[in-house]
Structures are given as C-alpha cells and as structure tokens.
Design a protein that fits this description.
This protein is mainly alpha-helical. It has 11 helices and 5 strands. It has helices at 2-14, 20-47, 61-64, 70-93, 97-101, 104-114, 172-180, 193-206, 278-281, 285-291, 339-352, and strands spanning 147-148, 231-232, 243-244, 251-252, 266-269. The protein has a 3-stranded antiparallel sheet with strand order 1-5-4. Residues 1-20 form the signal peptide.
C-alpha cells in the first residue's frame, strides 16, 4: 500500500506544473478517492466479523469444501474494498461508475490504490504452467487460476452488488420441488451413477468458486449480513425444515476485468479453465509440491496399504472416529464429497503411479 500512496504523492507533485484551477479540481478528486478507499477498508473490517460454522455439521460438508483459500481471501478483501469504495465515490460525486471511469484523474488514482496490476511474466518453456497462465501469450491471464470468472451475460444487479430490488423471487427450494419431484423411481438401464461421478470430476477440473464465509445464514443474527442469501423452505417439505443455509460466492477483482471502477460484483475461479488434470495435480506449483512423492517427482503420493489417496485434513469427517476413517488429499479438496468421486480420483492417481 505504501507504494500506491507513493504514486499519489508523485501524482500530486506533478500537479504543481498545471493550471491552478485544474490542480484544485484534481486534488479534490484525489481526496474523494482516498476517502472512499478508507471507507472501503472500514467496511472490510466489518465484513470480517463473522462467526464461523462448525465443520462437524454433516449437512454443510459440500458447502464447506469450496471455502476460499488464503489467496482467494486476499482477492475477496481487495474486491470488498473496491466495491464499497466505488459505491461511496458514486454517492459522494453523484456520478455512475461509467462516468467515473471516464475521469482520468479519478480512474488512475482509484486503479493505483485499489486494483491489482498483472504480475504474469511469460517465459519460454517446454511445458505448460501449473496455474494456466501464458496459455495465450497475448492475454496471459486468460484461463489462469485465481482470476475472476468471465461472464456470458452481463450482470443484472441493483447498485453495487445488491440483488435486484423488485418483487421477491419464489423460493429456490419450491421451484426445485415443483420441477424435479418424482412420482415414481425410474431405472436407467444404459447409464450408471458413474456417469454423474465422471461429470463431477471434470467439473472439479475447471471450476471452483469459493464461498464468502463460513457462517450460518439461517441464524437470525445474520439476517442483515450482505453475504447471506438463505433459502426459505416451503411447508410440507419432505426433507428440510424451514431454511437452507446459502452463502454467496466470494467477490473477485482482477486486472483482466476492463476498467477498475466497476460496481458490478465478479466471482473467483480458483482453478484453471482448462481440462488439465488440476483435480489430481492442483492448480499451482505449491499444491503440486504437496501432492508429489518427493522420492520420485514424476509420481503422486499414495497411502499404503491399498495404494489409496494420501491422508488430508480431517474437516470432512462427520464423527470423531478417526481410527476407521480418514479424509483424502487430492488436487481438489472436494474429493471427499461422495464415494464415487473419491473412487474415480483413486483410479486416476493409480494410473499416474503406474510405471
């Protein structure tokens, strides 16, 4: 941050050579940007005061699996500051984000203080990068892990990242019940459940969107928390009571998103956009080093006896009995979600370790 503030000081010194009125106007704009950034930092501090959920709740295991990593945590922090600072600057100046982007002084100061610059440096190599960078030399961040997801359709938010402020939408659970409620059990004689497991494996190779926090959004104490979108359960539901916990995705900010002063929320993808075996090897050099057998760097670690996946952290265990069960460690931590997914992981790792 010191370097960024240093830029502002240099910028101010350069203003000494310009017209007095222009200098006054520019200094006012910089003050507005600084005030907005500090406002964003205060809002970030408020957002971080969240109560974590216990990872022993069996109903939350699938949600807990994509909880953000340290790198995503920092990306989200930058994004929260950016969103709140943008919102504050819009309210203070009475301008839209698009209008603010057209102001060279505001846009430059805001970008230097808030938005990250690209640090990707492409060097000639015989092999691909683990994080997917430099696959496209003209756009080295395309498909890279830990970047903002690209949109197929333009976002439709209210100001900032708030939901659209029209009438209430119907419960997602009610829609699910109405559309997918089966009156009888159908038996598919052509495809087995392994088709679903394989599809989930491929999905886990190209997308991983972390949640914004580990909190209970069904708790009334969190009713006004901006990352909470709890799902109401209609009366008479056969499986659930009155609420389904739903935490929105972590926010992202990226140098690949055109224009820094953007009040529309973006989401993180922690994986590369390529089908490259990331669910086995990880999406970074650090992850790969943890998974590789250091006695033979071309092979992945396995657990004996049985040539199984190695042991990971115990967050996936529903009971405290760790003597007869363990959490598997793979390139993607969602390996423990369902047994068939873990089985396919194991088969592919065994194939990797076959010399």
């Amino acid at each position: 941050m010191d370097v960024r503030f240093g830029f502002i000081l240099v910028f101010v010194l350069l203003l000494q050579t310009v017209d007095a009125e222009l200098k006054k106007s520019s200094l006012t704009k910089i003050e507005d940007v600084l005030e907005s950034v500090f406002f964003g930092r205060r809002k970030l501090s408020e957002f971080r005061k969240l109560n974590p959920l216990s990872n022993k709740d069996a109903n939350l295991q699938h949600q807990i699996a994509p909880v953000k990593s340290g790198r995503s945590h920092q990306m989200e922090s930058d994004a929260i500051i950016k969103h709140e600072a943008t919102r504050h600057l819009m309210e203070k100046t009475g301008k839209t984000a698009a209008e603010l982007m057209e102001d060279e002084v505001i846009n430059t100061a805001f970008r230097e203080l808030v938005c990250p610059s690209s640090t990707v440096r492409c060097t000639p190599s015989e092999y691909r990068t683990m994080d997917g960078s430099c696959n496209n030399r003209n756009n080295p961040e395309w498909g890279q892990s830990f970047t903002a997801q690209r949109r197929f359709l333009q976002p439709v938010y209210a100001p900032g990242d708030l939901p659209r402020n029209s009438r209430n939408l119907p419960s997602a659970r009610k829609i699910s019940n109405d559309i997918f409620k089966a009156t009888e059990t159908l038996h598919d004689r052509q495809y087995s459940g392994l088709v679903m497991a394989w599809g989930q494996l491929i999905d886990h190779d190209i997308t991983k969107t972390p949640t914004a926090g580990d909190i209970d959004c069904c708790d009334t104490a969190n009713a006004n928390n901006p990352i909470c979108f709890p799902i109401d359960v209609p009366e008479g539901d056969e499986r659930f009571s009155n609420c389904l916990n739903f935490v929105r995705s972590a926010a992202a900010t990226s140098s690949t998103i055109k224009g820094c002063l953007n009040d529309k929320r973006e989401q993180i993808n922690e994986l590369t956009a390529f089908i490259d075996g990331g669910m086995l090897y990880g999406a970074s050099d650090d992850e790969l080093s943890l998974l590789r057998d250091q006695t033979n760097t071309y092979l992945l670690k396995t657990k004996e006896p049985g040539n199984l996946l190695p042991t990971g952290t115990s967050f996936c265990l529903i009971t405290d009995d760790q003597n007869n069960d363990y959490c598997q460690h793979a390139g993607d931590n969602r390996v423990n979600v369902i047994p068939t997914l873990g089985a396919v992981h194991t088969l592919l790792v065994r194939e990797n370790t076959t010399e």
